[in-house]
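Dear support,

I submitted the protein below through the web form. The confirmation email said the job was done, but the results page showed an empty box. After a refresh the structure appeared. I'm attaching both so you can tell me whether what I see now is the final result or a partial one.
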Amino acid sequence: MTMWIKLSAEESHDFQIPWDVASSQYTQFYSTATLSNLYVDQAWPLLSFTFQKENPQVVSFQPCRVDFDFINEIEDYNPLEEIIGHKISLNRREYFDLIGLLEEVSHDMSATYKRPLNSLKLLTPLQHKQFRIPWNSDKNERQRVFIQTNKPKAADQSQNMITLIILKATSATPFKNHFNQIPGTKYQIQICEFSEHDLLNDSFNPFQHATNNISLNSRGLREFAKILREFMDEEMEIELLAPTFFQPRIVQRKFSYA
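What the results page shows now:
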């Protein structure tokens, strides 16, 4: 059973998505809980898929963070507009099920192209500086940055937009089973879309000033799912290679013979 719940128009509107957007046939919204079941006062993930009217083969994917304190407290609050600097933080199960969701949405879309129109290329650490992405030296955090090198034809390319995907895995407080301490992991996903012109501004920070949106076709969604899966597999390999905290204790017994 997946962690991601497809929200109805009414449930999406509960998150203060405008009704005309929530009830549109071109939008789909997912979260890990409906608003009526939220039990912790924190930020909750909300996934938005908006299919282009002119070309339903292209979808705009927008992962949002819904601030619980703002719902019903700020009248004009709209999580779809509060996308600047947003990132979603997921546990391992939520992250794994997101991979399946992207593949499912991709399967439901019609693919008419033999070649993918989207290409997600891994940037080297030396290339991070070019896009104002700081290199993370935290030993407990792993970061990968991808750039979308090709966009769907239906996407707006009038401003030479740059789209980056930043993935982070952070080791959380370990929990114990009967034998080992097993590291917990938090995954962060952030999409930064901005124009090349923004890089000319010395004060530009993609984490604070970019929008959180990416346009993909069916194959692009599968490619997105693929890099998420590979990032997770890499984390699993690290954990398998990590030394365990449980070491068998050898006890030497002395026997006396009468």
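Response: this is the final, complete result; the empty box was a page-load delay. The chain has one domain: 5-241.
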